[in-house]
Specification:
Elements (H helix, E strand, L loop, with lengths): L5 E4 L7 E4 L1 H4 L2 H17 L4 E5 L2 H13 L3 E4 L10 E7 L2 E7 L10 E8 L3 H12 L6 E7 L5 H7 L3 E7 L4
Parallel strand pairs: 3-4, 3-7, 7-8, 8-9
Antiparallel strand pairs: 1-2, 5-6
């Protein structure tokens, strides 16, 4: 599967080596294999629902939820949900962003597994973790297609009591 991830130098800015999963999702067999592996791990974790982070986490998370017959909880950017939401602001490298969730999508003490395409610095994943726990979820597992371990995001999640299980990693970034 690792060979199906395209590397784009100097995107989105000079010095960044971007790991592009569109080539993985564009390869039917590779995409199916990655979803199957994530689904197996979510099932092992006892998932009762899958939370996917906008936007590419929707691709993998919804596929995992469908494969397991579980509810899918979209963790959205602001202004996308038509109901009162729980929201959290979080820091980015240059500024801040916000995530939102429909609190009615999470049952109290529901075991929710986070699924996203990539973990880098962990800002978005940690914000989603806080938001889901605030909504009443029990979150102690996060699954990613790719980990960029040198950026420390997986360690940030582990420090918050979450097991982090990527399919592959790309050290050195």
């Amino acid at each position: 599967m690792k060979s199906l991830v395209r590397s784009i130098p100097d995107f989105p800015k000079p010095g960044i080596l971007f790991r592009d999963i569109t080539t993985l999702i564009g390869h039917g067999e590779g995409f199916a294999a990655s979803v199957a592996l994530l689904a197996d791990r979510a099932a092992e974790a006892g998932a009762q629902a899958i939370a996917g982070l906008e936007a590419r986490g929707f691709i993998f998370g919804a596929a995992v939820a469908a494969r397991l017959g579980l509810p899918f909880i979209p963790v959205r950017k602001p202004g996308k949900l038509p109901v009162p939401v729980l929201a959290i602001d979080y820091a980015l490298e240059y500024g801040t962003d916000t995530l939102e969730v429909d609190p009615g999508a999470v049952a109290q003490s529901q075991k929710v597994v986070i699924v996203d395409d990539l973990i880098a610095t962990g800002g978005t994943a940690c914000a989603a973790l806080t938001l889901l726990r605030r909504a009443g979820a029990v979150v102690d597992e996060a699954l990613f297609v790719i980990d960029l371990p040198d950026l420390g995001g997986a360690e940030r999640l582990r420090a918050a009591g979450v097991a982090v299980r990527p399919i592959m990693d790309f050290p050195g970034h």
